[in-house]
Amino acid sequence: MLIKFKNKDQLKASDVTDESVYLQRRQLVKNMGFLGAGAILSSAIAKNAQAGFFDSAPAKKDTVFKTTELKFTTDTKNQSLIKTPENKIITHNNFYEFGAQKNQPAELAQNFNVDPWQLTISGECEKPIMLDYDDLTKMFALEERIYRLRCVETWSMVVPWIGFSLAELLKKVVPNSSAKYVQFETLYDPKQMPGQADRRLGGGISYPYVEGLRLDEAMNPLTLMSVGLYGKTLPPQNGAPIRLVVPWKYGFKSIKSIVSIKLVSKQPKTTWQQLAPNEYGFYANVNPNHDHPRWSQASERRITSGGLFARNRIETLPFNGYGEQVAHLYKGMDLSKYY
Ligand code: MTE
């Protein structure tokens, strides 16, 4: 990976545009009349987040996985990946069900109850199943996978996830010949998720949050069901108790707190695609050659241990650097049409 480090004094405003990019994304929903006072954090909360408060405030149900029971699979190309510090991964979040600002989910999801939990896998398959909270961490051999996560807003992280291949789960239910796509849904529970109860806070999204993959994308060995990060169960703000991680796609495909996985015959209508189809496509493969209509996708700001002005602007790679493993899935497709 080509890393373009610049001297600090050479930094231009364009080096830190991701913040403005995400504000632009929020502008989209604001233009639709949402995101008002409800989206403003109290200064006390903001101060806590800055002081690394959440470092010492583990999520409810926080469980440490035994490393002896984990298989370790580092990024296959191992481009000297430097992990994003845990306190950044768990305080800089997109989880609109808990507010559309980056630091709101860490605060507003603290009491999110993940046990009991029910995840159903159903639809076009021979053996539909329902998993409870314990099944999620006990049914499959868990492994640690260090993946890059690239948000469509042009920031990125390197996250040590813990989980298992979605393919393992799908094989259990035996998809039938009508299964062409997989549709995922997040929990709908406005009592627990304030952004679902208050459309302003929740960014104007119609919940539940829905995502989808083509069946072959879902079966790709890279596609992960994550139940933890940094050796512990997922904090609520990162999608507890179980989320999807699709490392070659923009982060919005990696749907959190999943209660339903359904094998379907038609392409699902996904949340962001429905909200702004010209901006967010169904495929959403990371593509530096296909700009978002309102900003460039050529580079990204890697979130590291440094502050906002850390020298960390890097080139964005096609398929987020996972082309060798996934480019064949899109052979013959016009990627600027199927964005
Ligand atoms: N899943 C749900 N249910 N709701 C969301 O708002 N945001 C998505 C994705 N999954 C989102 C979601 C976006 S835009 C990104 S970039 C990633 O989660 C962020 O994951 P992280 O907060 O763990 O970094």
Structure, described:
The chain has a single domain, classed as Alpha-Beta Complex (Sulfite Oxidase, Chain A, domain 2), CATH 3.90.420. Residues 1-17 and 35-59 have low confidence and may be disordered. It is of the alpha+beta class and 339 residues long. 19% of the residues lie in helices and 20% in strands. Strand 4 (143-150) and strand 5 (155-165) form a beta hairpin. Strands 1, 4, 5, 8, 9, 10, 12 and 13 form an 8-stranded mixed beta sheet that branches. The protein is built from 10 helices and 13 strands. The longest helix has 14 residues, at 18-31. Residues 93-97, 149, 151, 186, 209, 238, 251-252, 254-257 line the site of ligand MTE.
Please give the number of β-strands. 13
Task: Give the % helix.
Answer: 10-25%
Q: What is the CATH C-level name?
A: Alpha Beta
Helices, by number, come to 10
The CATH homologous superfamily name equals Oxidoreductase, molybdopterin-binding domain
Portion in strands = 15-25%
Distance between the termini: 23 Å
Second CATH tier, the architecture: Alpha-Beta Complex
